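Fill-in record for SUMF1/EgtB/PvdO family nonheme iron enzyme.
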Amino acid sequence: MRALLLCKAPLFLLVATVTSGCNIYYESKAEDMVERQMRAMVHVEGGEFMMGNPGGWSVRSDTIPVHRVVLDDFYIQKYEITQGDFELFIAHTGYRPSDNRYGKMRENLPERFADELPAVASWRDANAFCQWLGEQTGLTIGLPSEAQWEFAARARGKMIQYATSTGQAIPDETIAAGPTHYNTQDGRPPQRSAAVKTRGIPT
């Protein structure tokens, strides 16, 4: 899951400087967004699994050696944070994205910064979003560890490459097609992140 979001039309940013009445608007929108983020959290029962590449699926050196990991229960969001929610976070808090080319990228690639797409965010941006979410809820919220992410993505660490109904990743069938040509400044895909809570969600 990515951690931050922006608006296709930067309405939030444009309106924010016009009148203090907008603060009430953002406050209300932010409260709704926080509630939505918390509803998207799902409980993952802890356990032990073999982390890395137990099925020989990858040749990447960072997937070996396979090693045993034990995790406590945790909560993780079902969805990546959208660009629209990240943009609302920016408008509400005044946060400045860590990449100083952010505004220019929004201008040049408006289709990539559409509200419904996963947020374009660095680790620092995603972490700031999570910290803010924690402040709003009074809960401990942060980015998932690599082990938590892999455990959840592999359906609690099962010996499967893809946690789909068929065990296969077929674009537009068992997984979303997703963008393929949007990269960050270092040439790698945008940072993937998810808000995780290590304490229970009050009901």
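KEY FINDING: The beta strands are 41-44, 47-51, 67-71, 74-77, 141-142, 196-197.
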